[in-house]
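Q: Given only this backbone (452 positions), what sequence would you predict?
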């Protein structure tokens, strides 16, 4: 990766040449969204580049509606909702080709003592990468994101109360090239613009729903991969908006259709990143087995970090290609964990996360669970044979309430993430669950309005 000082000089050089008029400084929030500021390039170079910019610490204590949630240790009304600093990580800066003249640089949240804000999602992942490095390991990771594309704008979808929306496809288009051609003016633009923005794309394909798509990015190191993930997710929405369309990364948009996943691929390597720790002597290593064992052993306890909303758990339905069981096998899409590849490509695919997952937290959970398995030499159960949907092995949590209880009782989660991070995300999950429990839904009105 490019040196931070050199990357900063390159960005400032582009500003000096007049090629940029706007610089976005943004960080990922708890929900995985980009939040920050749009700066004039002139002001960024003169006043922000050296030291960053301030932002309200409430950004790491709000829910999806930006409502401040009371009870966080980081900040509150009683603390005055103080600022922290968004410190640019210049290795992440890129020009955004779908916004000509605009550059984006991701930032880390830094407190008044210039130390990292430990609960910031990007820092949570960095800490787990550091734990792996301390044990002599590096990682390569990738995420596969699925979404639904609509012949709607976000405004028209809202006016329709997100019901009776027109999908861009009318039939299940998994691997279909013909239907994909109809959507290529949007999907192709996303692929090509991501490539131009320095986010390497492997391919796109139709998925198992009408208007559902998957775009696969090339693997990278964990933090860089998570950065690519959030920029891609954000950029895909912006490009769709420019085309008069909308897309959603909801885990389960429609109860009648397949959900949208975020399959996470992970492999462990030596400190140089050149030798796989998963393969030696023509076969998988003990390290591989223990890493797999750890991810399976903690899959239920860490599920909040893979499935962060009440909607996430509605995706886990049998015979929909979403997992329902904590099982593993080679190249078996009915299992929660699918082992694929050989030699240097041997990796674990975690199929439990949905497209609504925050990649920094989901990657951090994957690394922490794998390291836990290695530390305690946890052997995975035997590979499942056949259809995991019909098996009796341990299920994934069925509701967010179950996931909250599992996380709250997890000594492994507290040990892996530390008391501060553990308490912060447990509190956020409880607040999200409480907000859902208070909501009166259209389903309830349709079922009860007349008949009770």
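A: Predicted residues:
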């Amino acid at each position: 990766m490019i040196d931070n000082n050199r990357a900063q000089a390159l960005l400032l050089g582009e500003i000096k040449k007049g090629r940029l008029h706007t610089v976005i400084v943004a960080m990922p929030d708890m929900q995985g969204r980009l939040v920050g500021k749009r700066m004039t390039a002139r002001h960024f170079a003169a006043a922000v580049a050296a030291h960053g910019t301030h932002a309200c610490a409430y950004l790491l204590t709000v829910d999806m509606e930006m409502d401040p949630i009371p009870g966080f240790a980081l900040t509150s009304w009683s603390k005055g909702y103080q600022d922290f600093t968004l410190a640019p990580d210049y290795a992440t800066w890129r020009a955004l080709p779908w916004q000509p003249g605009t550059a984006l640089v991701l930032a880390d949240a830094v407190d008044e003592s210039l130390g990292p804000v430990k609960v910031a999602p990007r820092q949570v992942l960095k800490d787990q990468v550091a734990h792996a490095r301390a044990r002599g390991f590096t990682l390569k990771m990738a995420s596969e994101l699925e979404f639904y594309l609509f012949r709607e704008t976000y405004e028209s979808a809202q006016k329709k109360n997100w019901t009776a929306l027109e999908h861009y496809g009318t039939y299940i288009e998994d691997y279909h090239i013909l239907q994909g051609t109809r959507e290529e003016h949007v999907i192709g633009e996303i692929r090509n613009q991501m490539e131009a923005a320095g986010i390497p794309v492997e391919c796109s394909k139709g998925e198992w729903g009408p208007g559902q798509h998957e775009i696969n990015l090339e693997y990278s190191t964990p933090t860089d991969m998570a950065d690519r993930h959030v920029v891609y997710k954000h950029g895909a929405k912006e490009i769709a908006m420019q085309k008069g369309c909308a897309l959603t990364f909801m885990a389960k948009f429609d109860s009648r259709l397949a959900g949208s996943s975020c399959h996470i691929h992970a492999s462990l390597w030596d400190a140089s990143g050149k030798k796989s720790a998963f393969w030696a002597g023509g076969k998988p290593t003990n390290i591989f087995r223990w890493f797999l064992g750890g991810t399976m052993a903690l899959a239920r306890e860490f599920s909040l970090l893979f499935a962060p909303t009440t909607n996430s758990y509605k995706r886990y339905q049998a015979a929909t290609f979403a997992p329902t069981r904590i099982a593993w096998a080679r190249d078996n899409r009915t299992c929660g964990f699918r082992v694929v590849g050989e030699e240097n490509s041997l990796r674990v695919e975690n199929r439990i996360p949905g497209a609504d997952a925050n990649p920094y937290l989901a990657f951090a959970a994957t690394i922490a669970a794998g390291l836990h398995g290695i530390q305690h030499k946890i052997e995975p159960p035997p590979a499942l044979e056949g259809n995991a949907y019909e098996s009796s092995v341990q299920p994934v949590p069925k509701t967010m309430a179950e996931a909250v209880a599992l996380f709250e009782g997890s000594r492994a989660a507290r040990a892996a993430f530390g008391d501060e991070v553990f308490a912060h995300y447990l509190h956020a999950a409880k607040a999200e669950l409480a907000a859902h429990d208070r909501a009166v839904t259209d389903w309830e009105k349709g079922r009860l309005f007349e008949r009770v």
